[in-house]
Every structure is written in C-alpha cells, then in structure tokens.
Amino acid sequence: MSKVIIACGGTGGHLAPGIAVAEVLQGRGHDCCLLISKKQVDSALVDKYNHLDFRKTPGRAFSGGLASRAAFLLSLFSGFWSARQLLREEKPDMVLLFGGFLSLGLGLASKTLQIPVALHEANCKPGRAVRFIKRLADRVYLPEGVRLGGVPPERIRYYGYPVRKEIKHCLKAEAWKRLGITVSNKLLVVIGGSQGAMALNEWVTHNFSELARRGISVYCVTGLGNSSESTIHEIDRNNVDVMAKFVPFSNDMGDVISAADLVVSRAGAGSIAEIIRCRAPSILIPYPYAADDHQQANAEAHEQRGAGLLLPQNRLGELTGEVAELIFNDWLLAKFKSNLERLDRFESSERIAGDLLAICQTRAIARAHKFEIKP
User: Sorting pLDDT into bands at 50, 70 and 90, what band is 265?
Assistant: First the structure.
C-alpha cells in the first residue's frame, strides 16, 4: 500500500482535481492526505467528503506590493519547515502538487527529503508556482498541447484535468427536478468559478427582464459571500412565469451544469473541465485580471476546439444578444455538444492515479534492491 500527500487547496480549481485523484487512490486501497487552505471556499467544498483526510495549512499567495511579497516569503519559509515536519511524520511515497501557494513549500521540502514529486498544471498557460517548481518534479501533468520549457519530455504526461466522479452528464429534466426548479422554455446557467464573479452576477440582475421576455430562465451561482439564496420572477411574451434563481454555492455542480441549455462562465480550467464532462455549450468570459491571463488562454483553446464561444469582459454589453441568439440555435448547440463529447475521451483521475502508483512501485523496488543483502 502506498501513501500520497496531495497539496490542492486555495481555489476550487486546485481542490476539486485533488479530491478526484484522492478518491481513485483510496478506492484502490491506498492512503491519501490532502493539504488545503483555510479559505471559506475550501471548507465548503470538502464538507461532503468525510471519507477523505484533509489537513488545513496556512499559506499566502504571491501578489500585491512589497509588504505583501515580504509576507509571502515569510509564509513560504514557515511552510517549508512545516512541510518537512509533516513529511517526516507521514513518510509518504509520493507528493502530488496542484499548483498555487500551498505547493511551493511542500515541493521544496519533498526534494530535500528525496521524496518523488509530481506536478499538475490545469491551465493552458502554466502559473507561477508551476514554473518555479517544474525542475524539481519527477513527473509533470499538462493539458494537451501545452509546452513547459526546462522539463525533459520523458517526465511529461498529457493526462488532462481530473473531474470528481459525481460530476457527470444527466438529462435536463432530471437535473431540474433535483435542483427544485421549473423551466418553461430555455435555461441559462451562470457560474463565476469557486469564488463567484460580481460582473456576471450584476449582468444577470440588470438583464433578467430582457432574458425573461424572451423565455430564458436563469440559474446563477453567485459565489460564497456575494449574496444569499433568492428567486425573482418575470413574465415572458406569452404571459408565462419565468424565474431567475440565485444561489451562493452548490455541491451539485453536475446537476447545475447538466440542467443548462447554455452556460455563461468564467474560464477557469476546473469550470471548463466540468462543462466538458456535462456536455454543456457555453459562452466563456475570462477573468481579465487572472494571473498570467491564463483564463484567456483557456477560453481560446476551448473555442478553437469548437466547444463554445469566447466573449471578453469588455464586451459584456453584447452578452444578452449573444445568449439570445445562441440559446435558440439548436443546430449550433448540437454541434457544440458533439465536440464536447469528443473532448471527453478518458478519465484523467484514473490515469494520474495509475501513473503515481507506478512511480511509487518503481521507487519501492529501487529501495529494496539498494538494501538487499547479497551473499
């Protein structure tokens, strides 16, 4: 039996794939410990996974002015020594890092103790943490077509983004029933990622009357702390009641996305992976202030694959017209769905878990031979 420590906290885009891989490893009889942040979004997301071992650990992102960067360096130094202590106590066979500030200290500490390190990059443009740790990694998992200079090709695997097992496509009528909503015509789902998107929330509020007039209901996941759960109603052209439901958070994103005729979303790698899994045509609005502009790269790749459309946030005034035109275009929606199905070729979590265990086994064999007593 192998033991793997997974650093995956900070955002839903890091935490969700960590959970997906951990569940596969645990299902195969191996031990996992998942390091998460103290953020509210991490606590909300892990609430339903009582069968997994989560450890909250402090950390700070590299951002802001001189004082913030000094605080980050202090946090990194502290995290390094805390990680060394954890590794000595847990004695893992492998460490898996999903990027973000929790990965840095653990990655550095793992190499000083000669523990193999695997690194997962979810985005089409690698982030700062991944670029910093890449030369320390024994294995790097990348999205298809992404290059990462300085890493020998034999260390790279194109295994995609691990999606949690409960995120799966289902019939719209089934999803509506489980969500407790009634849709008279078309349903638009709006999601802003694990932390929400104020620009998208405000767009729904300001434009719902026009959407409702056209017979378009809305289900909007606003993000924790951005609003309380509420529902508003309007009447369409045919005098039919149309609703817009706002929820701060959902633990049933498979149903939420499957319920949609069309999704409007930020372009985080996790959101896109779940959109692909649930076969949902989408209009992606990249967060314009994302580090390294990685959401723009993600959205461009998704659009180039014929799976959805990209609309920059500075053209948000055009979104209502784009939604109204696309959501009633059954031919184009069907084309998008076909391409989405083609993109969902394999279970990334299964491939990554299998590769991690192979590395652990190779290391175990090497250590056994090293200490073998020869006659």
Answer: very high
Amino acid in position 357: L
- Tell me if 3-163+346-370 shares its fold with 172-343: yes
Q: Which tokens hold the place of 178? A: 């489980």
pLDDT tens, 342-365? 999 899 999 999 999 999 998 888
Q: DSSP per residue over 119-137, as a string?
A: EE--SSS--HHHHHHGGG-
- Within 13 Å of residue 103, how many CA atoms lie on the same side as its CB? 27
- For the chain, the domains span 3-163+346-370, 172-343
Q: Which residues of 10-25 are buried (b: 16+ CB within 10 A; e: fewer)?
A: bbbbbbbbbbbbbbbb
User: In a 3-state reduction of DSSP, which class is residue 364?
Assistant: helix
CA distance 7 to 46: 14
Question: What are the phi and psi torsion angles at 95 (to 5°)?
Answer: -125, 130
Element (H, E) at 94: strand 94-97
pTM of the model: 0.91
Domain 3-163+346-370, classified CATH 3.40.50.2000, yes or no: yes
CATH architecture for the domain at 172-343 = 3-Layer(aba) Sandwich (3.40)
With 50 as the cut, is the pLDDT of residue 213 above it? Answer: yes
pLDDT-derived band of residue 65, with 50, 70 and 90 as boundaries? Answer: low
